[in-house]
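Review box. Two proteins, two foldings.
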Amino acid sequence: MANVLQNIAKVPELKSRVLFSLAMLAIYRIGVFVTVPGVDRHVMADYMNSRGAGGLMGLIDLFSGGALQQVSIFALGIMPYISASIILQLLTVVVPAVERLNKEGDAGRRKINQWTRYGCVILSIVQGTALAIWLEGMNSAALGGVVQNGGWGFRALCVLSLTAGTTFIMWLGEQITERGIGNGISLVIYAGIVAGLPSAVHQTWELVKNGQIPIPVLILIAGLVVGVIAVIVYFESAQRRILVQYAKRTVNRQAVAAANSYLPLKVNSAGVIPPIFASSILMFPATLANFFPDQNWLVGVVNGLSPGRMMYNAMYVALIVFFCYFYTAVTFNSVDIADNLRRGGGAVVGVRAGKDTAEYIDRVLSRITFGGALYISSVCVLPTLLQTNFNVPFYYGGTSLLIVVGVAMDTAKQIESHLISRSYESFGGERGPRMRGRRLDDV
């Protein structure tokens, strides 16, 4: 760790990016404790601890970094922005005009990003209204109601505060992406989950002291957590490398000898996006239920979609598989890859250049993406059985571990790329470990 910090400090640009990212995350964590006007956060904390910690509200509180329990202006978290991103990415596939705009380069992507921001504000208003109505009905058996004086005045002020909070988080994430290190939106979620880990450890220890979690079960939990982390690290670095052969060619009037190279395809090209997107969609029925509390069928759907239920797990897995394929298709264009190989004089061994190469890459990518989707689904769903059966804190779920480990690895790779580009050997120095890809040539 000392070598890592020393190497970062030697690169002024990298140092400023890391410090900027840490400063933005610190501001985000401070904002989590700014309470919405007109509510009592102590009553909300008592309610969450007694009833809502393990259900859908616990999931929302997890992704908001504990802001829901604090009834913070950041209680909606970054989920409205993620939902808006999902809608715009779906439109790029369905609507030809949006697809053409997406292919126009930086100008088109800036326009789509602008529409995403507008969509984030609209969804924040809708979800903020639903949350305000929900808060008015929340009561603690010991402390009373969460809202002191309800009505449309409180609802308007609450929606305004929550929308402003979500918009500010969106701005923080974009600033981290542009001027810091890593994906800003993922780092915001990462910071929220990591901030709750000490509390989860303390809660687990209290359950062990009270005899609610036996020592053998605690050992099983620790082993499962270590095993899940090892599986995540293995698959996140796994690659299928396609052999590419370059013919003898002339570059700047100089002959370049024939050479072989590899086209690396990640088993999990979508990263942590699928579980985040899937969780965001599964939260949407709860928003509708607050607007239509008299619809018994909608209340039944919300109850069925509580984390740990069979219906929730089935929908969660289906959405994860869908978004693994969808996000990979959006971010990876096999036709462009095949054209670039052909222009550079390269060809996949045993495959014709052009259309056949694109089809071959698609076929290989589909196979390994299926394996990646199964891996993500297993990691996100299987640990929930422990939460349901042994009352394990929600932070030890596979989704939170996947996000924490995946975002940490991605950020470490970006830091390492900055160091290597400036002639440093690796992330930890000349003798330090390097974030290498793992070959899966038999897939």
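Next protein.
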Amino acid sequence: MKSIKNFTSAASINVPIKNNKLVQSLISLSLRNRWLVLLFSIGLFLWGAYAVKQNPIDAIPDLSENQVIVFTEWMGRSPQVIEDQITYPLASNLQGIPNIRNIRATSMFGMSFIYVVFEDNVDIYWARTRVLERLNYAQRLLPEGISPALGPDGTGVGHVFWYTLEAPGYDLGELRSLQDWYIKYGLQTVKGVSEVASFGGFQKQYQITIDPNKLNYYNISLMDVLKTVKANNNDVGGRKFEMSGIGYIVRGMGYIKNLKDVENIPVGRDGTTPILIKDIATVQMGGDLRLGIFDENGEGEAVGGIVVMRYGANADKVITDVKKKMAEVEKGLPEGVKFKIAYDRSELIEAAISSVKKTIIEEILMVSLIVILFLFHLRSAFIIIIQIPVSIAASFILLQAFGISSNIMSITGIALAIGVVVDDGIVMVENAYRHLSENN
């Protein structure tokens, strides 16, 4: 059997390429500069290896629409009132934004949702900026005190991690306060996290139950009580004055700290005697109105949070960083309170990617074995086998360039294409062997 040098020379002379001078020139150039081709292949492979590390990894492809959600809350109003006074004015004014595909809206009891769907090639943060600009203009059309807000910059598959709090002996109100005012803010600092949504438990609030008969007796209106309570829960600033060469800053401290502070708020007077909240109402600490509960495995109610991944972030890295942050946050939790993972997409990601990687390795070994057995020449087989890792590396370069994540769909496509990748190499090598045999 001839050496590989003679083999390439014979192939370049005896293999005719008709009607395609560009391909003929490219092949001739490659045969004359084999080291240059080899260096190019190595560079392409290293570039692909770097792209593999940089490419976002997820279990499923993100096929959600490129949308911005506008949320407005006006509690206590019927869906028809929400539709007429909030949803319709906002949706009408958002239609003038460029590159919009369509607008969908939903009016519910006390809430309005508007989904502004943009073209797929529009940058999501450019779209959010445009929507926010138009909302500032549309603010004047809404009822007083109503402020629409943008939803998180996540996608429909952005819920990558769920957790609950395992805390025997603690009530749901305490756990919800711990989630809202400590855990949530800690996890939101993780890079790639758009939002940490709390669920379950009771949101604590001061509840004032007014006796209408006492209001009538003291001749006090309900609006007077509301305004007085609102005005008394506030800190006010004074001015600075100097005394004996020392500067003092005066301020009024009036924030409510406990139930007694609420009970002692004056709402009127009967002659010279002040009428306090406790004279006309009962004050208690209670939970906000709930529209549902969160039950964990039928064992009772639980409190926890949902980690929403930011648009375009690496799901696997975000989950890893969230777990590291949870270990830090857990050190500051009260004794007996621990995190319990309810849903972790990284398990699905690792299982899916591992399964596809195993399939790719098996296919590479099988194709390599078949090529070696049929050609029975290691150096010639190497020419075909080297196409597999280089082609896979080039595929990840294109995935990174087009913003496609490494998921079970994209990697499975690469696995299915391995057999096709080596077909042309096998045909060319066999063709070259035939011409070498004829020349002998």
